[in-house]
Specification:
It is a single chain. Helix 1 crosses helix 2, helix 8 (174-190) crosses helix 9 (202-214) and helix 10 (251-260) packs across helix 14 (312-327). The chain is of the alpha/beta class. It has 3 domains: 8-225, Rossmann fold (3-Layer(aba) Sandwich); 251-327, no CATH class; 337-406, RNA-binding S4 domain (Structural Genomics Hypothetical 15.5 Kd Protein In mrcA-pckA Intergenic Region, Chain A, Roll). It has helices at residues 8-18, 27-40, 59-73, 104-118, 133-148, 153-156, 160-167, 174-190, 202-214, 251-260, 263-273, 278-289, 294-309, 312-327, 347-354, 360-368, and strands spanning 23-25, 45-50, 77-82, 127-131, 194-198, 221-225, 337-341, 345-346, 372-374, 377-378, 385-386, 389-395, 399-406.
Amino acid sequence: MSEIKISTEVQEDMRTVLRGVDELLVETEFAQKLQKSRDTGVPLRIKLGMDPTAPDIHLGHTVVLTKMRQLQDMGHQVIFLIGDFTAAIGDPSGRNSTRPPLSREQIEVNAQTYYEQAAKILDPSKTEIRYNSSWCDELGARGLIKLASQYTVARIMERDDFTKRFKGGIPISVHEFLYPLLQGYDSVALKADLELGGTDQKFNLLVGRELQKEYGQPQQSVLTMPLLVGLDGVEKMSKSKNNYIGITEAPESMFGKVMSISDTLMWNYYELLSSKTLDEIATLKKQTEEGLNPRNVKVALAQELITRFHNAAAAEKALADFEARFRDGQIPEDMPEITLPGSPLGIVAVLRESGLASSGSEATRNIQQGGVKVDGQKIEDKSIQLEVGTYVVQVGKRKFARITITA
């Protein structure tokens, strides 16, 4: 691509594109694409692929979807690619074992739910929905062998997770090598100008770039977003780690979970999830440093997210319910913050080790008398285990602690 002078408007667009980004490859190249698009009026083709391996989306998934919406609002064509074919293989990224294949029925159910939830972020009227089975099914054995000939085993083995499994003697099935090739072929089929993904997808996205070159196409740029840290402030957001906020959760639950994140982590959530501009976030941060209560800033974030995934009325009600609990003395604004390792931890051990009870017998007695609550819910079973996550634990009317359970 010949050098094009970058206008002030495109420089501003690049500032939005780079917000919260881990890496954009190649940055100067993508700026040229944006300028050419603005000069010609031809929108860029922006691709995001998601395999429907689970039915629900949490806030961690929405980081890349939010970036897609920003590009969509600039006027570019976003393509939400549902990997119904590749889901049957399973993405081996970051895994230390072969992912069990999903049935066609599971994939179809998950795919429908995925898109319905993604539509809460993307503008459905301006989103192109594609399924990669429409071209992968047509490849056949001959096409698949031709595709495999475009990439070497040495290059595939550069993937960190493959290397670790191979050196550790952990089995790698041959079909797993096909996954990055098929994801890359999606970019060829869609003639993508930019592909988005999490940092764990970088290798696969670069394969797409290389395959486009082999097929005589302009190479896509690659944009990776950081993995959102979960409520525990340590691990990436994940259902399996119980440190997530699902976008279909009840408003009151979403509100409480957002309020449980640390004041430091709150700014990361603002940058990756909020629709506020960077200047607006910087102003909020400055106001907080000058004395604004971080709780108020967190409330605003909770309301914004609930409005996006539910509606404004639900956000107002969640706030009213939360404030009523404070007025009634149910939850204090300030409470000790305690981190306990060793998930899962039994509730008796949690109470004892956090100092909310002086002994296991006192903890048991408090539970039996109905005086223990976790996130506002009364605990009646002393055998309950708390997984990784952050919880507001209450004993009696006056003892509170925000307890983070780690692995």
